Amino acid sequence: MRTGYEAYDVVGIGFGPSNLSLAIALEEHWANASERPPAAAFFERQPAFGWHRSMLLPSTTMQVTFLKDLATFRNPMSRFSFIAYLHEMGRLARFANNQSFFPTRQEFHQYLEWAASGFTDRVRYGATVEEIRLPPGTGPETADHLWLRVRTAAGTDTVNARNVAISTGLVPRMPAGVDRDDRVWHSSEFLEKYGRTKPGDLARVAVVGAGQSAAEITRFLHENLPGAEVTSVVPSYGYSIADDTPFANQVFDPGAVDEYYFGSDRTREAFWNYHRNTNYSVVDDEVIRDLYQRSYEEELCGAARLRFLNLTRVEGVKRAGDRIHVSLSSLLDGNAGELEVDVLVFATGYDAMEPAGLLGDLDRFCARDEEGRYQVQRDYRLVTPGLSCGIYLQGGTEHSHGLTSSLLSNTAIRSGEIADSIIHRRAERELPSLNA
Ligand code: FDA
Ligand code: NAP
């Protein structure tokens, strides 16, 4: 790894699936080209590769086909495909016998770890990028690289990069005024905190939300805490199904990005109005049916401990010792209510990636639209008038590029487009000196 002056062509901030896919795209581009390899490095704050580890619940499945892995849609011959992984593990035939497009999340995690292990020379784990700025003594037009401050257990380093690819992931969302603690959790930290809690402290638990995370956690708690009362606070009248039928699924096709990006405001609005239910506040059919069946069987036995508070939202939380008092508002009768539990899990979703904190003072060189959102080029590069270095986003571009902005569905294509852009711009920059 280079620290100090020598600049990388690109530094990736975060090493989740998006930047892992970028590392693969850069490597495969170079393998097919005569020019020098792009110098790339990636910094990941976790101590080892991990993809939403605290939500790796047993038996949960992927929400995209395994064909939408890190590389296949860009390069079906890639040695980093999910099929190549299965082949190397000696499991290809057994996987095929399952006749499913949707591996478990645990198996996909193993695939991602396997792919990440091919890049250990380019990734530093336990390394948090704290700031991106212009190098001291330079201006936006004169700076030919950006300066990144990276914190590790050993101290702070600086790294220079001509381009950065920010891919720091979704940001857990809690209701306003509610803080997390050892008994009030967000779904993103579920297994970690569950593992640290004594079973005796989990006699009455509640889960808030009606998305995939909420439904999976409700099922997990009901399954794993046989004596506990499990309450699900559902803002709708009941869980709604995630539409993954073929026509609707086309919103995740690579071609839909162009139609969204180059469409009018009305086009983009139509995408959201008609197809938000492919991803947000929705649940897979199988999980919905499983939960319904559990609740039905309990009713038959006259011993219901799984209950659903429908059309209900959480308004606030008060902690009194080990007890959590939850304030509820119900749309059924308009009344406020209260619930007392030992542990409360907010599966209340995520906000989009927000790079402003990392960009600090550089943020003023990034153009925004009339609604204050970043202007982003088709190649995912921020519009930065007067700044010659490139800042690319993987995530946080739903307003410009549509639903797949932070999803795996289009990761292979998206990171291929970013790799192409970085390499073509480098060639353009170097051309005058080659001709001189
Ligand atoms: P991701 O969040 O995975 O990675 C970002 C990385 O950046 C993290 O490892 C983080 O530690 C690191 N980081 C953050 N700040 C940093 C800093 N300052 N310095 C260094 N490192 C930093 N989508 C889909 O298409 N199909 C699916 O099946 C699923 N399943 C799914 C399950 C669950 C539980 C969730 C919450 C989400 C999904 N998703 C999904 C959507 C999800 O966004 C997607 O699967 C990927 O995680 C996106 O990958 P990224 O690399 O962009 O972000
Ligand atoms: P989500 O889909 O955004 O759902 C959040 C839920 O919380 C919504 O039902 C929302 O209701 C509700 N909510 C918010 N504030 C509330 C409040 N104060 N009281 C009651 N309810 C409240 O979030 P998610 O379920 O975490 O899913 C996020 C992403 O991760 C999706 O892309 C999903 O597909 C993915 N995911 C995938 C898997 C998997 O691959 N197996 C597992 C989990 C998650 P409103 O909409 O009414 O605000």
Automatic annotation (TrEMBL):
Keywords: FAD, Flavoprotein, Monooxygenase, NADP, Oxidoreductase. Pfam families: Lys_Orn_oxgnase. Its cofactor is FAD. The keyword Zinc does not apply. Belongs to the lysine N(6)-hydroxylase/L-ornithine N(5)-oxygenase family. Its EC number is 1.14.13.59. Transmembrane segments: none annotated. Pathway: Siderophore biosynthesis. This is L-lysine N6-monooxygenase MbtG. GO terms for molecular function: L-lysine 6-monooxygenase (NADPH) activity. InterPro entries: FAD/NAD-bd_sf (IPR036188), Lys/Orn_oxygenase (IPR025700). It catalyses: L-lysine + NADPH + O2 = N(6)-hydroxy-L-lysine + NADP(+) + H2O. The keyword Translocase does not apply.
